[in-house]
């Protein structure tokens, strides 16, 4: 499979703009990395990290801060974002290499990374099983998958359908994502799973709180953060 043959849906113009805002960096990306770090029993020393779907590279400095990696490899399918990602790579505290490619056929050898980081990228991928098998392949034995993803309930909500672009038929619930990850061979312990119900991820966009109404006691998860072990 070549890059040109890969099925993917390019993000909307609004989405591409929003993913480069301070709101995204501080309220979404930084919060997710902090939650994933909390879920880890211990971080590998000077890990090698693969950032899947790096976009403009806003994650590089945050990953360097959280994990002190020896190096980061990053891959992005949208060629229009590579120049910005390479600029962020040049400003990072650790070495970063940025490549054009897709998650369904990663251009890296087996067992090459201590950590695979996939933040809000997986719901853009069409062939989920193939991509998850690639994540497993490129991790070292005992390596960690840091997975932070929006769930079907959120992606199918009206505001998200209006403002962003996604392959709607492949969206998954939190349980379905968890099943896929475990079926691939990863171990995911219950204490390594988080389902934050943040205001921006809810179909009401926080309106329930703004108007003083109570949140559902057992809402369907809109976000899934987890740490899986190969």
Features:
single chain, 230 residues, alpha/beta, 34% helix, 19% strand, disordered N terminus
Brief overview, please?
By secondary structure, this protein is of the alpha/beta class. It contains nine helices and seven strands.
Fold topology:
Blueprint lengths: L12 H6 L3 H18 L8 E5 L6 H9 L3 E6 L5 H9 L5 E5 L12 E7 L8 H11 E12 L1 H4 L2 H6 L10 H11 L8 E2 L12 H4 L12 E7 L1
Parallel strand pairs: 1-2, 1-4, 2-3, 4-5
Antiparallel strand pairs: 5-7, 6-7
Helix pairs in contact: 2-3
Detailed description of the structure:
There is one protein chain. By secondary structure, this protein is an alpha/beta fold. 34% of the residues lie in helices and 19% in strands. It has helices at 13-18, 22-39, 59-67, 82-90, 128-138, 152-155, 158-163, 174-184, 207-210; strands spanning 48-52, 71-76, 96-100, 113-119, 139-150, 193-194, 223-229. The chain has a 7-stranded mixed β-sheet, sandwiched between helices.
| Residues in helix, % | 25-40%
Rg for CA atoms: 17 Å
User: How big a fraction of the residues is strand?
Assistant: 15-25%
Low-confidence stretches: 1-5
């Amino acid at each position: 499979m070549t890059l040109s043959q890969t099925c993917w849906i390019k993000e909307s113009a609004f989405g591409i703009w929003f993913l480069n805002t301070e709101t995204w960096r501080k309220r979404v990306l930084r919060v997710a990395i902090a939650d994933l770090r909390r879920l880890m029993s211990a971080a590998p020393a000077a890990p090698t990290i693969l950032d899947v779907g790096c976009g403009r590279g806003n994650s590089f400095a945050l990953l360097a801060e959280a994990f002190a990696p020896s190096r980061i490899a990053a891959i992005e399918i949208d060629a229009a974002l590579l120049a910005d990602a390479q600029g962020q790579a040049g400003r990072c505290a650790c070495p970063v290499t940025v490549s054009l490619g897709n998650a369904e056929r990663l251009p890296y050898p087996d067992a090459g990374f201590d950590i695979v980081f996939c933040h809000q990228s997986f719901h853009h991928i069409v062939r989920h099983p193939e991509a998850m098998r690639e994540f497993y392949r490129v991790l070292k034995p005992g390596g960690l998958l840091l997975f932070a993803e929006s769930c079907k309930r959120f992606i199918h909500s009206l505001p998200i359908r209006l403002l962003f672009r996604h392959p709607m038929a492949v969206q998954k619930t939190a349980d379905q994502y968890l099943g896929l990850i475990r079926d691939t061979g990863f171990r995911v312990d219950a204490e390594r799973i988080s389902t934050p119900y943040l205001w921006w991820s809810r179909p009401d966009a926080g309106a329930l709180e703004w108007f003083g109404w109570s949140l559902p006691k057992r809402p369907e998860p809109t976000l899934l953060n987890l740490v899986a072990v190969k």
